[in-house]
Mitochondrial processing peptidase (Dendrobium thyrsiflorum), 500 residues
Amino acid sequence: MAFLLSNIKRKVSALSFSTTVRCFSFYVSSKPLEESIPDARFLKHSTPEPRLVDHTSFLLFPKVRLSTLPNGIRVVTQSAPACSLHMASIGVWIDAGSRFETPGTNGTAHFLEHMIFKGTRRRTSQSLEEEIENLGARLNAYTSREQTTFFADVQSKDIAVAIDVLADILQNSRFPEHAIKRERGVILREMEEVQGQMEEVIFDYLHAAAFYKHPLGDTILGPEENIQAISRVDLQKYISSHYAGPRMVVSAAGAIKHDEVVNLVHRLFTKFSRDPTTADELVREKPATFSACEVRVDNDTMPLAHVAVALKGAAWTDADSIPLMVIQTLLGSWNKTAGVGNCSGSELARRISTEGLAESMMAFNTNYRDTGLFGVYCTTTPDCLNGLSCVVMQEIRRLAYQVSEVEVIRAKNQLKSCLLLHIDGSTAFAENNGRQMLTYGRVVPFPELFARIDAVDAPTVKDIAGKFILNQDVAIAAMGPVQGLPERSWFQSQVRDEQS
């Protein structure tokens, strides 16, 4: 599930246009929706009756093995799927991201991701790059709001070298001043590039609106003033504070041997703190609170308006997270260039396509340790903003009152297919297992996951939709020519329970 949802890797600079943030809560009455007629076409490969199905026969993946070292590091491995008999992937997943930073140090986690490849006591930046290239390997990293990851894809015979490289850069990086100065410029240019990626920008604005004045609402790159001020001391302090054994998972998959990986990690990963403080404890000290806010950036020079509407979602381990995944799939996604719209199984996509209301639409569902975000993101022309807003909110609210078993079966089948399509090699297996160890404390077997999805039926969807939609706060992020977008109070009125 982690690979589907996300920990979204958002990277964006400070607001570049006139930005308004407003917080309030406001309700008015709304009219009931007309019930839609279920479409029998989507029963072609299924049944309208919920069934308990045993998927074990075609979900028998290689066994996951787990060992915990004395310093708290967990090592999880999964041997090769058939397509990866000669390749291996290994990485270090760390319970450390931008939400664990303070306002004055926001951006340190991402800055550290850049600096970790700039040389150690044993390897210069150039020799590290040459070593990886000579192996025909790939070494990479990314930072999200709750996790940081460093991983390598190598031929199976080079797994020991990959582990040695990861151990070296994570424990012995030197952070030379000239490299820090150079990376400031690299990150500032990256911020400029990200400003042109509207989806990245709008989701950063959405986090700022949904988690106002909380670290989850900060960008991953941090503001420019922080990037200019981050020092070697800040980088070293972040490592000593957050790169602790109990908050780290080494995950390997492909043509590997569990005992060999465990022995190498035990021998090489020796300098990390054994501080038992967990990420959950840090989150409980500063829990995220969903805020009813909006961020609007008016920019008439943009051809399209970008709008995201969000409600509070579920945490990773919340029992309601699976039904919300189904709800996300029910709402679906659509793009004008794809050529599929009025034939889509998503009622929202069909309506948007038929009425010509948008250029694209995407439902999203993002989980964090103590909260989540779910909703719909759309791009459209300025003249369609009002009509699009009406259709989106009608379809979101409809799920709490009227949804057919036909729709739910289709969404469950699509969700299961999507999950399986993401497991396509050793890299995907290693990433899935590493993330799940951090978020769930274990790797959830696919038969169990599919059984939980199959247990969701139409009444469950309506119950969960009622719980997370009706009378709940709404956050809005909008950018572009958005003068015609209804006020946030109007969006709030659309989730008012018509029976209250």
